[in-house]
Amino acid sequence: MRRIAAALAVALLAALALGPPAQAAQPGFSTAYQRIPGAGGIQIGAVVLTPTGQGSGPFPLVVMPSSWGVPNVEYVGQGAKLAKSGFQVISYSSRGFWDTGGGIDVSGPPTVADVSKVIDWAASNTPADTSKVAAVGISYGAGTSLLAAAEDPRIKVVGALSGWADLVRSINPNETVSLQAVAGLLAAGNITGRPGPEMQSLQTKFLTGRYDDAIAEAKVLGPVCSAQTVVGKLNTNKPAVFLANAFEDSIFPPTQYTDFFTSLTGPKRLQFAHGDHATPEVTGAIGLPNETWDELVAWMRHYLTGADNGADAESPVQLKSQRNTWRGYSNWAAVGQPRTTYLSKGNLQSNPATGWNKGIAAGVPTVADSGIALVSGALQGLLSIPTGVVTPLIDRSFAGVWSGEVSPESTLINGSPRLHFTATPSVKDTSLFAYLYDVNALGVGSLISHKPLTLRGATPGKAVTIDLRMEATSWEVPAGHHLVLAVDTVDPRYLGRSSVTFSSPAGDPSSLSVPVAS
Length: 518
Fold this sequence. Notes:
This protein is of the alpha+beta class and 518 residues long. 27% of the residues lie in helices and 30% in strands. The chain has a ten-stranded mixed β-sheet with strand order 1-2-4-3-5-6-7-8-9-10, sandwiched between helices.
């Protein structure tokens, strides 16, 4: 695997070197494949892109750790553009993957320390200005970059695209294992890398069906690998943090990023668009035109070089609806104000409805689900094909379904819908999956948001009050459409376990609160 990665890097560097000879006075870049000493003495496989025809430097440094399972050539297209415009760039394979030594430690301390080692090497071997450093990555590289900025004050800018701030909340949302995502990550890690002891222990438990043991271990490991844990250090170092993600991200869902963004006190930007994991920015990594990278590069240029390009003057929160309209907001709290409707027997209504009960049988799938990881969200983001359902076909024996009134005007749902209800489980562990749909006159629904929840250690027959925050969105509901809420007990993306009765007590009516932009 290491030889393959090195050969890929060399071949790509040779391709980049082809073309008409560069004139001496014109900006360009040189390329080289390097082996860089990492933490603990391992060797890091890196692609180094150095500006040419732009003076002798020093140049701001951009360090780019690779995504999970992807080699160092991942960012070479974008890196070439950056180098040609005056940035020293080092794109490298993350620890344990491809041509970099060591074992995969899930962004543990050695992987984070590798970022600083790369900066150290650049100070001695390139014309980089290591007082002006950006750490930029997608997915795994994003999480690593955030953690590195908490430890190394030389990092003045972070670009964390499709990453995580809270690992456990991402892969085990509300105590519900994200089965497809975890299985995919484990498979990719074993194919393209060498799992370290931490990953080996987790995957052994996961693959042998010891899910509770795996999650217990992940809850110990997760905080060490999560930027939310070190937000205090980030606020002390105050790097300018650029966060971007997809609303339908099936590996690192967006709401954990909104909480992290709110807790940051330094310069910050949050940018969400529709799509699945990494789809909003993947084309930019290989050098194609891309909105996310355009904004990130302007952000880096302002905070690393002082360029007066207005990057600091734009609204800190940028949301793109499913109709491709960008809107800016001053903070996350400003994106939408709650509009509450109440759950009755099959309806969403403006007044509280109490005294009803709705029992459903558990363990049987309905046509309502969140789609396929890495596929459904990508179809939404790239082709505007939503995860759909014909709502009359949702079997009411196995799901609770509530339908709202037809809206006479267009409504922009912005933020995280919240569901408040009472459930009475009939077994100790019960999984619930909530789906919010935009439904047309024919009953065809498009998935706006969803969220899983597992009640663990509940007392069978005892009512439990649940407050469920669904995933963030920016969704334009057309006039003539209505909302439908569905809750069932099976979703193929998640590891479910369950029977449950929904109710609305007189003193605590069940409700759905949808954030609506004015």
